[in-house]
Amino acid sequence: MDTAYNILYKLVALTIRIICRLNGGLDIIGKENIPSNEGAIIASNHISYLDPPIIGAVLPRRGVFMARKGLFDIPLLGWIIKRAAFPVDREKTGPSTIKAAIKKLKNGELVIMFPEGKRSETGQLLEAKRGIGMVVGLSKAPIVPTVVVGTDKALPVNVKWLKRARIKVVFGKPIYYPSAIDGKSQRGHLLHKHISNTIMTAIGELKNNYSDKSC
Fold first, then answer.
1. How far is CA 186 from CA 134, 176, 195, in A?
2. Number of Cα atoms under 13 Å in the Cβ half of residue 80
3. CATH number, domain with residue 102
4. How many CB atoms lie within 10 A of CB 58?
5. pLDDT at res. 51
6. Distant-in-sequence, close-in-space partners of 18: CB < 8 Å, separation ≥ 6
7. Spatial contact of 195 and 133, defined as CB atoms under 8 Å apart
8. Residue 9 lies in domain
9. 49: which of 20, 106, 147, 167 lies 20 to 30 Å off by Cα?
């Protein structure tokens, strides 16, 4: 990463945090659960287009996203995304995407993933895609289950301008590979699906504990 981008990244992250605090408040819980010097997956629910920039802005160290490949073709936005993310086909996660994620994890980076594969327009958790299970199964990287609350109120579906809302980002205790497989002897697709479901269960528990009622 070049120096100019490092400065831009920090300025953008700071600006996002300030806007969120002024626009209703921003609570960040559990940052100590994020490994400080090893590769890890930040696995979050996805309820608003605000989720990626807000998660990126509150992480204690820089993360890299798996982003929809069409975003890379947008002028200016594409330039920024290329430096903060790598492309993924939401319809079919190819081997090159999996390899890219594993390489970054092996290099000690934080990889932000949305197991559901797309934004939930109802706020309810969707079924996890198998891709995150594949990445975990092949990399053995720890997973930090994460839940974002309130972004769907700050920027609801089909709304272009921010609404006042308190936002909360909660990072749960890391899940390590042995506990993710839970003694299962399956291989391939079944094992990857089991890992994905285990992650979504952890996200669901966080969501229940830190729902809008607790904001």
1. 13, 17, 11
2. 11
3. 3.40.1130.10
4. 22
5. 95
6. none
7. yes
8. 3-214
9. 106
Cα(36)–Cα(31) distance, rounded to whole angstroms? 10
Q: Which helix (H) or strand (E) holds 101?
A: helix 95-106
Listed in order, strand segments (DSSP E) in 51-190 are: 63-68, 85-88, 110-113, 143-149, 167-171
Predicted confidence at residue 211, as pLDDT, reads 77
pLDDT for 215 beyond 50: no
- How many angstroms separate the CA atoms of 21 and 167, rounded? 9
Rounded to whole angstroms, how far apart are CA atoms 93 and 47? 21
How far lies 48's CA from each of 28, 54, 173, 174, 177, in Å? 17, 10, 23, 24, 29
* Cβ neighbours of residue 59 closer than 8 Å, sequence gap 6 or more: 31, 34, 42, 110, 112
Residue 35 pLDDT exceeds 80? yes
The amino acid at 136: V
Condensed to tens digits (0 to 9), the pLDDT of residues 51-61 reads 999 999 999 99
DSSP 8-state secondary structure symbol assigned to residue 29: E
CB 85 within 8 A of CB 51: no
Tell me: the pLDDT tens digits for 77-132?
555 666 677 766 655 556 778 888 999 999 999 999 999 988 999 999 999 998 89
Encode pLDDT of 182-203 as tens digits.
766 667 788 999 999 999 999 9
- Specify the number of domains making up the chain: 1
Residues, the chain = 215
pLDDT higher than 90, residue 139 = yes
